[in-house]
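Components:
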Amino acid sequence: MSALTRLAPWTYGFIAAVAILIIMMVASGVGSLGSVLSTALIFGAISVVVATGQMFVIATGPGNIDLSVPAVLTLSAYAAMTAAAASGGSALVGLVVALGTGMIAGTLNYGAILALRLPPIIATLAWSFVFQSVAFNFGGEATLKPPAALAAFTSFRLAGVQIMPICIMGLTAVAALTLTRGVWGRRALAVGQSEAAAHFAGIRVKRVRLVSYVLCGGAAGLAGYLLAGFTGGAALNMGDTYLMEAIAIVALGGTSIAGGQANAVGIWGAALFFNLMGTMLNTFQFQAGMRFIIMGALIIAIVAIVPKPKVR
Amino acid sequence: MSDKRFRLSHGTLQLLLSAGALLIMLGAIFHVQPNAMSYFGFTLLFKLSMPLVLAALAQMMLILLGDIDLSNGAFVGMVTCITAVWLDPSPGVAVIAYLAAIAAFVAMGWFTHARELPSIIVTLGASFIWLGIAITVLPSPGGTVPGWLTGFTGWRPPLLPMPIWVALIAAAVSQWFLMHTSFGTLLRATGGNARAVQKAGWSLSRLRIAIYAMAGGLMVASGVLLSGIITSGDPNVAPSYTLLTIGAVIVGGGAFVGGRVSPIGTVLGALTLSLAGSFLSFMHVPATWQIGAQGAILFLVLAGRVIVDRRKLA
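Structure:
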């Protein structure tokens, strides 16, 4: 037990993910492992993008959370697919529009928090209703097809290795460096630890928080863009599963929900764990109800077992 | 400061705000459709508010404690499933299942505080558990509810329509209990300053268990009423409750700091949010824009708070 508690909180997701891989290997042989892992990597990568954005917001202090992520993800995907189709199938135009839509949404979120002095939970919730409506009017029930280049990129393999998850790992490295070495990252964590102290230290708290919401929106936009590319288009409700899951991933990844402490690398472990878990429960043919119960119990158990991240 | 006597208190102003929003929407509906201004019209307009009011009060109890319940909707959905499967053929089993559900909710709350876990994550995990149980009990929407229950939710009491009675009684009882009894004061103190309550010799875990038990009981009542209205059970009937109930508590003047909530405000908030849907239909807002317009209404009502807060600072 003492050896267990000495492990850093962010390693727990990786350990759990490896444990599931071993269970699956024992149960269904080494042969199926490759396809299981590659699916988990693709969907895990998209979860990582969403969760990393959410992590930046959560890190800036208690109460900061973005509930509009699913709506922003869907809206960005619709806007990007529409723009890409209008520009003759340009994947780049789609990417720019997706990021732009997400970042505008993030700005609107923080604008409402600031102007109406609302708790972030409520402000982002109210905006998510609006974003959802706009997305609905964009595409209606129809699925908007992704540009060919994007669809090809999301499933492109070089020597059997998927490129998209590798690119996202690069982004994770950038996010980790931003948090540990970047000026904005250090400021965001300082604000998360104590808003008053950060303010007296000369940090522009509002600007730091604004950037975190803009980053979160941009991340949701990117995730929507990639997901639309991989699953064959933008669809309503495509973002729904990414709200609760992303928050759980952030927490399991070693980020303190109270803010002031964040870990970008741990998100990968938690995201892989969640996606592998889903696959495993499917393979073992658990009833849908049982799958949910196990999933929920695991979230609670892991949060209870993982030592609380310490604020440095 | 000199005219202090003539100034309404901060809390009263916030109540007037939610009440004002409610009256404006009702006024607009009656302008478009004067027939709605009747016993029957009110019954229809507010029918779905009955379970929401109770679920919002449950959410309020947890926000009072400084917690938040992201499993509210899933729990209410689970109760509708229990009701649709057992209440008619074997009421005894149903009652035991209700009590077990409340006990599970209390256990979740106790665990959260014993291990000092963030309630946002624990209730998030619990929401999957409630949904899983609901799907196991009732895999697809359906089932039957006893005649007396549909009779009760469709009852036409004297003087006022049923939903209005429910809202009035819920508001009066919860306001009296939380604001005017010594136990209610103790509960508010637990949310506001737990250490002080502990120093004064009270058992914090017992008080928290009491709060979670009351919230669980309110959600069971909400789920039973809801299944009476929809005459069936459905695991996914109320996912929007989680967010609507949090919205109702905040619109009603509550805050996430713990210890600061308003029962009357919460009931008004729940009525406002459930009327918003009917209001938008009456205004002929296209279906695709209705949910966006609900967000806009939420903003408008909350924008009033800024003005109220300014006055307080002035």
